[in-house]
Automatic annotation (TrEMBL):
<dbReference type="InterPro" id="IPR043129">
    <property type="entry name" value="ATPase_NBD"/>
</dbReference>
<dbReference type="InterPro" id="IPR036388">
    <property type="entry name" value="WH-like_DNA-bd_sf"/>
</dbReference>
<feature type="domain" description="HTH marR-type">
    <location>
        <begin position="20"/>
        <end position="70"/>
    </location>
</feature>
<comment type="similarity">
    <text>Belongs to the ROK (NagC/XylR) family.</text>
</comment>
<dbReference type="Pfam" id="PF00480">
    <property type="entry name" value="ROK"/>
</dbReference>
<dbReference type="GO" id="GO:0003700">
    <property type="term" value="F:DNA-binding transcription factor activity"/>
</dbReference>
<dbReference type="InterPro" id="IPR011991">
    <property type="entry name" value="ArsR-like_HTH"/>
</dbReference>
<dbReference type="Pfam" id="PF12802">
    <property type="entry name" value="MarR_2"/>
</dbReference>
<dbReference type="InterPro" id="IPR000835">
    <property type="entry name" value="HTH_MarR-typ"/>
</dbReference>
<dbReference type="InterPro" id="IPR000600">
    <property type="entry name" value="ROK"/>
</dbReference>
<protein>
    <submittedName>
        <fullName>ROK family transcriptional regulator</fullName>
    </submittedName>
</protein>
<dbReference type="InterPro" id="IPR036390">
    <property type="entry name" value="WH_DNA-bd_sf"/>
</dbReference>
Length: 421
């Protein structure tokens, strides 16, 4: 049987080459023409043509020169990651945390923007956009994508919000469409705990193909990666554990919690902290006391009580998902640290439901914002690579014989053996 050859047009092959070279520069940093040619598998004349096209498109720039073993110095080229940037947002009850990031995920600037009583989704994004770009020294017109973390279930297909937490001023329907029409860039609205799960993955959980992040603060939620992919559910509400009724076994130590939010949410935590004599007045004070005196009898008693409750919350997760790992995140779990994780595991083992490990989070600071940064950086990278084909389409391509071109491991077979850019 003869091999099937799929011919490629010269324009398509140029796009494949140019995208491969730009990806290489994004991943590996500055390179010379010859290095680009060697690593993409094209000839040096073709490599020079690739560099010329990318430079003309404003996607790369010369950054200096290096001395080779023989001959004159060679110019090095780097991807221009300032061409398009992304805006990452963590939308909070009383403000918005914002960052501007480039295609490599580098944070160029950040801002904490307080909100007014008459806040809206548009005003929140606009204020954060302006402040973060000003801090980064980047024109606001360079923002090409937005990712916003919110305290709500976000439907990935419609952008609608439901099971909303503390999110004043934001509409519930068609939020994404509203923002995209206003700002004329792609917008992602994502559940805050899901973004914290992405941040956890990028912080060092990559070896775990499946893990769940249990977030406990004022409210509770769950983010889960299954086979390396974030699980949203049919309408984005996967992980909304707070609405589950408590099992009857909880009556042994709690006779007035109706659901899991009642069992471990912020109000119950305050009540338990006061009951065990932890010093302070309110949620923030109790967290501070846990961190300041983790070995005090009051804190030890609180952690023991709370770990038993967390084990109850984790039981349905283990039964249905059976993740390799459960990570404890959110303000309450961060304050409890390793001791809270150990106590929780001990109580979960008593239920005859084992789990590989229960561990404290690796991302105690700004996890939602860091997750948004990772997602929008990937979006910006795609936008930057898409500009390769856009530039070729806008400027046309000269006729050339159909050819065989190898780009890395990708080969397009055709009739003519020669290579061109």
């Amino acid at each position: 049987m003869s091999r099937l050859h799929i011919p490629g047009t010269p324009g398509l092959l140029r796009t494949i080459n140019d995208r491969a070279a730009l990806e290489l520069l994004l991943d590996s940093g500055p390179m010379t023409r010859s290095q680009i040619g060697d690593l993409t598998g094209v000839s040096r004349p073709t490599s020079s043509q690739i560099v010329a096209r990318l430079e003309a498109a404003g996607l790369i720039e010369s950054t200096g020169a290096v001395q080779g073993a023989r001959g004159p110095q060679a110019v090095t080229y780097a991807a221009r990651t300032d061409v398009v940037v992304g805006l990452a947002l963590d939308v909070l009850p009383r403000g918005v945390q914002a960052s501007v990031v480039d295609a490599r995920g580098t944070v160029l600037g950040s801002a904490d923007v307080p909100t007014s009583e008459d806040r809206t989704a548009v005003s929140d994004v606009r204020a954060a956009w302006d402040a973060a770009c000003a801090d980064a020294g980047v024109p606001t017109t360079r923002v090409g994508a937005v990712v916003a973390g919110v305290q709500a279930a976000a439907d990935p297909s419609t952008g609608d919000l439901w099971l909303v937490g503390d999110l004043p001023g934001w509409p519930r329907l068609a939020v994404r469409s509203l923002l995209e029409q206003e700002f004329d860039v792609p917008v992602r609205i994502e559940n805050d705990v899901n973004l914290a799960t992405i941040a956890e993955r990028d912080a060092g959980r990559c070896a775990e193909e499946s893990f769940s992040l249990l977030w406990i603060g004022g409210g509770i939620g769950l983010g889960t990666l299954i086979d390396g992919r974030l699980h949203h559910g049919a309408t984005g509400a996967a992980g909304e554990l707070g609405y589950l009724p408590v099992p009857i076994t909880v009556r042994e130590y709690d006779d007035h919690s109706l659901n899991l939010q009642d069992l471990v949410g912020g109000r119950r935590f305050e009540e338990l902290a006061a009951r065990h004599g932890v010093p302070g007045d309110g949620y923030a004070d109790y967290l501070a006391a846990m961190v300041a005196a983790p070995d005090s009898p009051e804190v030890v008693a609180l952690v023991e009580d709370f770990g038993r409750r967390i084990a109850t919350v984790i039981q349905p997760v283990v039964a249905v998902v059976e993740p390799h790992l459960v990570v404890l995140g959110g303000p309450t779990c961060i304050a409890g640290g390793q001791r809270l994780a150990d106590v929780t595991r001990s109580h979960l083992t008593d239920t005859e439901q084992g789990v590989a490990a229960i561990v404290p989070t690796m991302v105690p600071l700004a996890p939602v914002l860091r997750g948004a940064q990772a997602v929008v950086a990937a979006d910006v990278r795609s936008l930057l690579l898409d500009r390769v084909s856009t530039h070729l389409t806008d400027h046309g391509s000269h006729p050339a014989p159909v050819q065989t071109v190898r780009v890395g491991a990708v080969t397009s077979g055709a009739s003519a053996p020669s290579r061109s850019g």
